[in-house]
């Protein structure tokens, strides 16, 4: 039994010596004894060149894949968000899609109310019956975010969520995630994979992923300054 004090000192997420190879235990490792932890809610960013293992790491944290060795300790409920929202929005309208994320055990009224609340949280209020194909890319990404919130997730794993968005929609998505991470009541934890160095200015901490390992957390500004001269080579 963990006492209250001790429990508060446990990380929210701890990844310890995680290894995984897509080709089975004897294949080339995508993750190689990867370790890091997150101790408080907020927006945490990871940068790294293609093939460094970022998406594989997210699949392991979300439980889609089992590690070959190592452990993941988490006190949070994860939700994975992809670069292309079309890969995760399934039903024709905003409300019908969101309903998929809300437990059917809840009374209908509660489920409908939750749809309203999460749409409001992502700036899509009143869009319950909007057909999804009429939404812009940024709105679709925000709807995917609403789906994660509707499922009660409090660990968002965002895999280059703004890569396909225009600058305005990019800023909007970033602002919404930041406000969810900074809110007083039940702030969420988000890990955001980015290729855009300017996004690093907005995070609580940022780390480089290289050859299947996540490095130490630094301030986003510091990492941006360090990476800028190398842009195109490191990230
Ligand atoms: N579905 C897959 N099947 C086989 N190999 C994969 C798969 N996904 C990723 N890999 C391999 O795992 C390694 C890490 O890839 P990935 O996690 O996608 O990196 P990143 O997201 O940083 O680009 C790469 O060598 C890649 O080729
Ligand atoms: Mg990837």
Identify the CATH homologous superfamily of the domain at 9-76 and 188-235: P-loop containing nucleotide triphosphate hydrolases
Percent helix: 25-40%
> What does the overall shape look like?
globular
State the CATH topology of the domain at 9-76 and 188-235.
Rossmann fold
Structure description:
It is a single chain. It is built from 7 helices and 9 strands, in the order αβββαββαααβαβββα. The strands form 2 sheets. Strands 5-6-7-3-8-9 form a 6-stranded mixed beta sheet, with helices on both faces. Strands 2-1-4 form a 3-stranded antiparallel beta sheet, with helices on one face. The chain has a domain at 9-76 and 188-235: P-loop containing nucleotide triphosphate hydrolases (Rossmann fold). It starts with a helix and ends in an 8-residue tail after the last helix. The chain has 235 residues and is an alpha/beta fold.
Topology:
Blueprint: H1 4-9, E1 13-21, E2 29-38, E3 42-47, H2 54-61, E4 69-74, E5 78-81, H3 94-99, H4 108-121, H5 137-150, E6 155-159, H6 167-182, E7 189-193, E8 205-210, E9 213-214, H7 220-227
The structure holds adenosine-5'-diphosphate (ADP) and magnesium ion.
Descriptive tags:
three-stranded antiparallel sheet, binds magnesium ion, 23% strand, binds adenosine-5'-diphosphate, 235 residues, single chain, alpha/beta, Rossmann fold, 7 helices, six-stranded mixed sheet
């Amino acid at each position: 039994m963990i006492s209250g004090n001790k429990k508060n000192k446990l990380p929210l997420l701890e990844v310890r010596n995680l290894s995984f190879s897509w080709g089975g235990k004897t294949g080339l490792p995508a993750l190689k004894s990867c370790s890091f932890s997150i101790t408080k809610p907020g927006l945490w960013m990871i940068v790294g060149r293609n093939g460094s293992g970022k998406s594989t790491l997210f699949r392991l944290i979300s439980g889609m894949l089992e590690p070959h060795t190592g452990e993941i300790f988490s006190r949070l409920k994860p939700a994975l968000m992809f670069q292309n929202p079309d890969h995760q929005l399934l039903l024709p309208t905003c409300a019908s899609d969101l309903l998929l994320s809300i437990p059917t055990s809840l009374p209908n009224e509660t489920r409908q109310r939750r749809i309203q609340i999460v749409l409001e949280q992502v700036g899509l209020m009143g869009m319950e019956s909007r057909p999804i194909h009429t939404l812009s890319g940024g709105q679709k990404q925000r709807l995917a975010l609403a789906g994660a919130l509707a499922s009660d997730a409090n660990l968002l794993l965002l895999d280059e969520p703004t890569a396909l968005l225009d600058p305005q929609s990019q800023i909007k998505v970033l602002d919404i995630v930041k406000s969810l991470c900074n809110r007083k009541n039940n702030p969420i934890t988000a890990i955001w994979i980015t290729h855009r160095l300017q996004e690093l200015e907005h995070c609580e901490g940022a780390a480089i992923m290289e050859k299947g390992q996540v490095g130490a957390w630094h301030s986003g500004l510091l990492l941006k300054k360090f990476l800028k001269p190398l842009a195109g080579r490191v990230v």
